[in-house]
Amino acid sequence: MSEYGLICDTCRATVELQDAIVSWKSDGPREAGFALTHAEHVPASATDRAEVRRLVAPNEFLRFITERFGRVVAEPEPLRAIAWGLAPFVMRHDNTAEMDAFRAASFGERPGVKPGTPAGSVAAATAKAGEVEGGK
Fold first, then answer.
1. Is the pTM above the cut of 0.85?
2. Which of 2, 9, 21, 97 would be 56's cystine partner, CB 3.0–4.6 Å?
3. Over the stretch 5-54, which tens digit does the pLDDT of each residue have?
Protein backbone atom coordinates (compact mmCIF):
# COMPACT_ATOMS: atom_id res chain seq x y z
CA MET A 1 0.00 0.00 0.00
CA SER A 2 2.65 2.41 -1.06
CA GLU A 3 0.20 5.22 -1.82
CA TYR A 4 -0.37 5.62 1.91
CA GLY A 5 2.47 6.57 4.18
CA LEU A 6 2.76 6.34 7.94
CA ILE A 7 5.23 8.69 9.60
CA CYS A 8 7.03 7.88 12.85
CA ASP A 9 6.20 10.50 15.50
CA THR A 10 9.75 10.28 16.87
CA CYS A 11 12.12 10.27 13.88
CA ARG A 12 9.69 11.61 11.23
CA ALA A 13 10.73 8.87 8.78
CA THR A 14 8.29 6.63 6.96
CA VAL A 15 7.40 3.54 8.95
CA GLU A 16 6.24 0.32 7.30
CA LEU A 17 2.86 -1.00 8.35
CA GLN A 18 4.41 -4.23 9.65
CA ASP A 19 6.91 -2.37 11.84
CA ALA A 20 4.66 0.37 13.24
CA ILE A 21 3.49 0.48 16.85
CA VAL A 22 0.82 2.64 18.49
CA SER A 23 1.76 3.30 22.10
CA TRP A 24 0.26 5.28 24.95
CA LYS A 25 0.34 5.72 28.70
CA SER A 26 -2.68 4.64 30.70
CA ASP A 27 -3.44 5.44 34.30
CA GLY A 28 -6.74 3.79 35.16
CA PRO A 29 -9.47 5.38 33.05
CA ARG A 30 -7.11 8.16 31.87
CA GLU A 31 -4.93 7.81 28.75
CA ALA A 32 -2.34 10.15 27.26
CA GLY A 33 0.73 10.29 25.05
CA PHE A 34 -0.55 8.43 21.99
CA ALA A 35 2.22 7.93 19.43
CA LEU A 36 2.70 6.01 16.19
CA THR A 37 6.35 4.99 15.95
CA HIS A 38 8.85 2.38 14.84
CA ALA A 39 9.13 -0.43 17.40
CA GLU A 40 12.53 0.88 18.53
CA HIS A 41 11.18 4.43 19.04
CA VAL A 42 8.35 3.60 21.46
CA PRO A 43 8.58 6.12 24.32
CA ALA A 44 9.90 4.68 27.58
CA SER A 45 6.92 6.17 29.42
CA ALA A 46 4.41 4.12 27.37
CA THR A 47 2.54 1.50 29.38
CA ASP A 48 0.43 0.08 26.54
CA ARG A 49 1.02 -0.68 22.87
CA ALA A 50 -0.68 -2.16 19.84
CA GLU A 51 0.88 -3.44 16.64
CA VAL A 52 -0.39 -1.53 13.60
CA ARG A 53 -0.28 -4.68 11.44
CA ARG A 54 -3.11 -5.97 13.63
CA LEU A 55 -4.97 -2.65 13.92
CA VAL A 56 -5.59 -2.46 10.18
CA ALA A 57 -7.94 -5.44 10.36
CA PRO A 58 -11.45 -3.91 10.50
CA ASN A 59 -12.53 -5.65 13.72
CA GLU A 60 -9.29 -4.81 15.53
CA PHE A 61 -9.47 -1.19 14.41
CA LEU A 62 -13.03 -0.88 15.71
CA ARG A 63 -12.13 -2.61 18.98
CA PHE A 64 -9.19 -0.24 19.52
CA ILE A 65 -11.20 2.89 18.77
CA THR A 66 -14.26 1.87 20.80
CA GLU A 67 -12.08 1.03 23.81
CA ARG A 68 -10.99 4.66 23.81
CA PHE A 69 -14.63 5.85 24.09
CA GLY A 70 -14.91 4.80 27.72
CA ARG A 71 -11.69 6.49 28.78
CA VAL A 72 -10.56 10.03 29.43
CA VAL A 73 -8.04 10.98 26.74
CA ALA A 74 -5.94 13.88 28.00
CA GLU A 75 -4.72 14.91 24.52
CA PRO A 76 -7.20 13.68 21.89
CA GLU A 77 -5.46 15.17 18.83
CA PRO A 78 -2.65 12.57 18.54
CA LEU A 79 -5.22 9.76 18.86
CA ARG A 80 -7.42 11.42 16.26
CA ALA A 81 -4.46 11.72 13.87
CA ILE A 82 -3.58 8.04 14.37
CA ALA A 83 -7.19 6.96 13.73
CA TRP A 84 -7.34 9.02 10.52
CA GLY A 85 -3.90 7.77 9.47
CA LEU A 86 -4.91 4.12 9.85
CA ALA A 87 -8.41 4.48 8.38
CA PRO A 88 -7.32 4.32 4.70
CA PHE A 89 -5.62 0.98 5.35
CA VAL A 90 -8.73 -0.39 7.07
CA MET A 91 -11.31 1.01 4.64
CA ARG A 92 -9.63 -0.04 1.38
CA HIS A 93 -11.78 -2.23 -0.82
CA ASP A 94 -8.82 -4.58 -1.28
CA ASN A 95 -7.72 -4.76 2.36
CA THR A 96 -5.74 -7.95 2.74
CA ALA A 97 -5.13 -7.67 6.48
CA GLU A 98 -7.86 -10.10 7.46
CA MET A 99 -6.97 -12.61 4.75
CA ASP A 100 -3.30 -12.44 5.77
CA ALA A 101 -4.32 -13.06 9.39
CA PHE A 102 -6.41 -16.09 8.43
CA ARG A 103 -3.69 -17.46 6.14
CA ALA A 104 -0.97 -16.93 8.74
CA ALA A 105 -3.08 -18.47 11.49
CA SER A 106 -3.56 -21.58 9.40
CA PHE A 107 0.21 -21.97 9.11
CA GLY A 108 1.05 -20.71 12.61
CA GLU A 109 3.08 -17.86 11.16
CA ARG A 110 3.14 -14.05 11.28
CA PRO A 111 0.64 -12.20 9.04
CA GLY A 112 2.20 -10.63 5.96
CA VAL A 113 5.26 -12.89 5.98
CA LYS A 114 5.40 -15.98 3.77
CA PRO A 115 5.19 -19.28 5.67
CA GLY A 116 8.61 -20.86 6.11
CA THR A 117 10.43 -17.51 6.18
CA PRO A 118 13.10 -17.61 8.91
CA ALA A 119 12.50 -15.55 12.03
CA GLY A 120 14.01 -12.08 12.02
CA SER A 121 13.14 -8.60 10.97
CA VAL A 122 10.30 -8.02 8.53
CA ALA A 123 12.67 -6.18 6.21
CA ALA A 124 14.99 -9.19 6.05
CA ALA A 125 12.03 -11.51 5.52
CA THR A 126 10.70 -9.29 2.74
CA ALA A 127 14.08 -9.16 1.04
CA LYS A 128 14.45 -12.93 1.24
CA ALA A 129 10.89 -13.48 -0.01
CA GLY A 130 11.66 -11.22 -2.97
CA GLU A 131 14.53 -13.50 -3.96
CA VAL A 132 12.37 -16.62 -3.81
CA GLU A 133 9.23 -15.27 -5.46
CA GLY A 134 10.60 -15.08 -8.99
CA GLY A 135 8.38 -16.57 -11.69
CA LYS A 136 5.10 -15.94 -9.94
1. no
2. 97
3. 899 999 999 999 889 999 999 998 899 999 999 999 999 999 999 999 99
